[in-house]
Specification:
This protein is an all-alpha fold. The protein has 1 helix and no strands. The radius of gyration is 14 Å and the shape is globular. It starts with 37 loop residues before the first helix and ends in a 9-residue tail after the last helix.
Length: 69
């Protein structure tokens, strides 16, 4: 399974680190992007995903971010 995670409002580097991800809400199904306009469409979709995620967290509460165990 391939998973892409956006860490909203988090700064730092997670490269080389093991992180845990808890699924709270599915935003949308996977979409295929190809062709010359794909980058602009993908960028717009990511912006919409972030807005949708923020709206969901506003309504349901944001989970605590836990440090390394």
């Amino acid at each position: 399974m391939l998973l892409e995670v956006h860490l909203l409002d988090w700064q730092g580097s997670a490269y080389g680190r093991v992180i845990g991800v808890e699924f709270l809400h599915k935003l949308r199904d996977e979409e295929a992007w190809s062709g010359p306009d794909a980058l602009a469409l993908l960028t717009a979709q990511i912006r919409q995903d972030v807005a949708d995620a923020r709206a969901w967290f506003t309504e349901h509460g944001s989970p605590a971010i836990r440090g390394p165990h």
